[in-house]
Amino acid sequence: MFWYTGSLIESGTLELAIDDPGFIYGATVFTTLRVYHDSLDHPLTNWAGHCERLQFSVKTFGWQPPDWHRLRQGAELMKENWPVLRMVIFPDGRELITGRILPADLANRQQDGIRAWLADSPDYARSLPAHKTGNYLPAWLALQTALKQGTQEAILVDSTGNWLESSTGNLWGWRDQQWWTPPTNTGILAGLMRSQIVNWLKQHQVPVREEPWSTQLVKEFEALAYTNSVMEIIPIHTVLAGTTQLTYNLHHPAFQQIRSLWHI
After folding, report:
1. Which of 119, 120, 130, 184 is deepest in the core (most CB within 10 A)?
2. CA pair distance 75, 84, nearest whole angstrom
C-alpha cells in the first residue's frame, strides 16, 4: 500500500516512465517521519519541520511544488497502517508516500547499543548534504560495507578524516560535561531530530558544542551515539577504525538527558 499523486494504491509496485528523472538520476527529495501518538501534529512527529525540509529543497532546486494539502491527506491515510512514513517529492510536484513498521530490534539497539564501522574513504560522504535527495548511494554503500564488517552502522568522514555523521543519522558525543555534535556547515545533513535535540538541551541549560570532530577529539569522548527521526537515540559502544577499536560507555548517565525528550 502506498499513496501516489492523490490516490491510495494497494500494490507493491510503482510504475514510472522509463525516462523519469526520479528513476534514472535519483532526482527526488524525501523525508522520513515517525508518527507519535497517531498524530501528525504531535511535537515529536514534527510534521511542520518535515514539510519545511521538503519546501526548502523544492525551492532551492526550482522544482514544481507539490499539492501540500494532498500530501497531508495522504499522510493522514497512510498513518492508519504505518508508524513510519517516507514522503517523496518528484521534480514535477508528484508526491509519493510509503510506509513501514519500526525495526523489530529497535528496543534492543536503544538499550544495548551497536557497533559502527568508520568509513575508510571520503567518497562515502553524501552528495548535496544539505538536502535529502533520492541519490543516497554513497551512504547506502557505506552501510552495506559496515554490515559486511559485522557492524550495524557506518560513520562517514571528510577528506581530512573528520567524522561527519552516520550513514543514517547525526552523531553525538559526551565530553567535559557537555554534548558535542558536528556543525552543519561541515557537509552534513541538518537532521530534524538533531535540531529538536539541540533546542531541547539548550532549553534545559545543557551545553551543546557544535565543532568539527577531529580524529583526536573522538578519542576523548566518554559516550557516543547517533540519532534520527525514526530510531531516536542509539548508543554506539564500539567503533572499528582500521586496525584499532574505539570503545565508549554504553550506560553513560548523560544519555538520559536526551532520552527525556521523548517523555514530553
Report:
1. 119
2. 10
DSSP designation for 101:
P
pTM, two decimals, is 0.95
C-alpha grid cell for residue 133? 535527495
Pairing between β-strand 114-118 and β-strand 170-175 as defined by DSSP bridges: unpaired
What is the identity of the amino acid at 47? W
Identical fold for domains 2-100 and 106-263, yes or no, is no
Task: Output the CATH code of domain 2-100.
Answer: 3.30.470.10
Angle, vertex CA 28, rays to CA 22 and CA 29, nearest 5:
170
Cell 528513476 belongs to 23
Contacts of 56 (CB under 8 A, 6+ apart): 131
- The full 3-state SS of 113-130, as one line of letters, equals CEEEEECCCHHHCCCCCC
pLDDT number for residue 43: 94
81: cell is 497502517
Would you list the DSSP string of 40-99? Answer: TTSTTT-HHHHHHHHHHHHHHHTPPP--HHHHHHHHHHHTTT-SEEEEEE-TTS-EEEEE
pLDDT along the chain (264 residues), means of 10: 97 96 96 98 97 98 98 98 98 98 96 97 92 94 97 97 96 96 92 94 92 96 98 97 96 92 76
Provide the residue ranges of all domains of the chain, joining segments of one domain with +.
2-100, 106-263
Q: CATH for 106-263, among 3.40.640.10, 3.30.1360.40, 3.30.420.280, 3.20.10.10?
A: 3.20.10.10
